[in-house]
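quick one before i forget lol
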Amino acid sequence: MSDKPADPAALKKDLKHRMDNTLEVLRKEFAGLRAGRAHASLLEPVVVEAYGSTMPLNQVANVSVPEPRMLTVQVWDRSMAKAVEKAIRDAGLGLNPAGEGQTIRVPIPPLNEERRTELTKVAGKYAEQARVAIRNVRRDGMDHLKRMEKDGDISQDEHKKNSSDVQALTDDAIKHVDEALHHKEQEIMQV
């Protein structure tokens, strides 16, 4: 694997970058889980059939939050309003938009206990996927360090020290995942 960094410091920097990217993906996934309050990022996963292709909602409309339990979607092209409304309804977010010309109102229904429990399970799945991705990054790093030692690029002592640094990076990233999950679960369960 010639695309891997040749020295341990660069390797650690690369691994940290990859773990940080995993945490960023997790934050975006968590933002899409609604906790009973309106938030513009709630509609980020929505894609619209527009002009012969699919495109993200934010490329055909502007999403705003006029009140805590309401989103408004201002469609730029009036002819796209029905397609946007259908895309929001079909996105599996449990939302029922109501069109008024170029403006679409999306009321955010309060969450019942069953839906809250379901959302915490989904949040848990997202967190577990992030943990697995972080562990895979760690495994790549450890394998690379073994290869560097075998090739004579680093000594056995350097391998040991760098392995424990990689493990510390991993533990820190997993801790961030657990904290984010805990925070999201509290947000979801808050009535």
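fyi The chain has two domains: 8-32+112-189, 40-107.
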